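Annual report, structural modelling task.

Input specification for the 3-methyl-2-oxobutanoic acid complex:
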Amino acid sequence: MEKIFVFDTTLRDGEQSPGASMSLEQKYELAIQLSRLGVDVIEAGFPISSPHQFEACKTISAKVKDTTIAVLARALEKDIDSASEAVKAAARPRIHTFIATSPLHMKHKLNKDPDSVVEMAVKAVKYARNKVAEVEFSPEDATRSEISFLRRIIEKVIDAGATIINIPDTVGYAVPEEFGGFIKAIREGVPNIDKAIISVHCHNDLGLGVANTLAGVKNGARQIEVTLNGIGERAGNAALEETVMAMYVRKDLLPFTTNINTHLLYNSSKMLSNIIGFPIPRNKPVVGENAFAHESGIHQDGVLKKRETYEIMTPESVGREMSKIVLGRHSGLHGFKTRLIELGFSLPEEDMKKAYERFLEIADRKKEVYDDDLFVIVSEQIGEIKQAFVLDYFSIQSGNTSVPTAAVRIRVKDKLEEEAATGDGPVDAIFKAVDRVTNIKTKLTEYIVQAVTPEKTAMGEVSVTLKIEEKTFIGRGASTDILEASAKAYINALNRYMTVTQLTAKD
Ligand code: KIV
Ligand code: ZN
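The model returned the following structure:
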């Protein structure tokens, strides 16, 4: 079976999802997990776009050694200089350069004629090849470009030294048969294509990202660009876990292998979800809560008689054993640490100790601590150190005949600030009291509460989506008390906002 290279762009295209921005520590933690998962290439970021992106690419390049590290650059010398600087410590560095090729983009976005675009692409690839051995080229908006122009530019950039040609369906416009034909037309119509690997990068605007990716593979693509949980610009990219499992389950039609350790898919997906605060939809293929749940009597009966009646893959094959009670209040730091490593986390010593202290607090309140609880505890810890606001204390007065009132004390730069407010319910009162401390104008657009695990003493997890200055920030908080979880989630979203503003202030 032929190998398909998995190029993961969770940290680059994925991070472009509204609200998905990650701290440096979070990106690093995910990069380690991606490398363990077995991806061949990690696209670490877009170095020129901000100092934060540059630092993250540099750190990942220096520390993640068994995976190719790619970084993105427009077809401009200044972008490529920044990219090559950011990736230079990588064991296997790659520069991924792109320029738009559709008539729409060339005319309205770039204001350039096709000949100038070819010239810029060739120049950029040559320039990048002088810096690193591996250069990938993407004709942006390829699926709305003229095929004859695409063939021409691809032939030229391969001559200039590109060894990976990525075909992006930038706006998720293609349908599978058409996209497969498109890849075939490139494979058959570019004379020097045998000197490059064809890659596909499919957005999911019509829900066809995975289907298009697979159509590309069937027609000669040997690299797939995907993201965990399908995150990415707008409706996202083809989901890694879905694309990989489709090839795994349907080997009869898709006789390809990947280097992915499918047993780590579930934990990787959960890690990402907890880090960025995007809940995984219950019905999400492969990793959603309901993906292996059988509700109707007929289905349950069938599965009990023969699992294959209603299950096309086993939960175990994607790492979904039943969440075990692994730890309790008597568990020591060693046991805690061992389980976290098994789950894929590799926290620095100091964060590990903080997470352990938080674990003991939770274990005291809820006795049995499941893997799902650990994901929440640890994700709260990653990147926790740089907190602009820290909840120190809160109190609530509420009831069906009184006006809900909240008091909060928040640490702001070594100073404790206290405020109180009334609200339309206790949660609203807390948020208003926090607003008085932080003075940040927010609009609450979503508030979700869910239990982390099924039992009565479960931790409640709250996800809060805020719009601040036209940008989206998602915060998450967990506690056995949902009002405390709400306060933490709200403050977490504000801290994400503060992180982003601080980073862009340096730009
Ligand atoms: O969707 C797209 O076109 C991209 C390119 C930069 C590859 O993300
Ligand atoms: Zn993209």
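The two ends are 47 Å apart (CA to CA).
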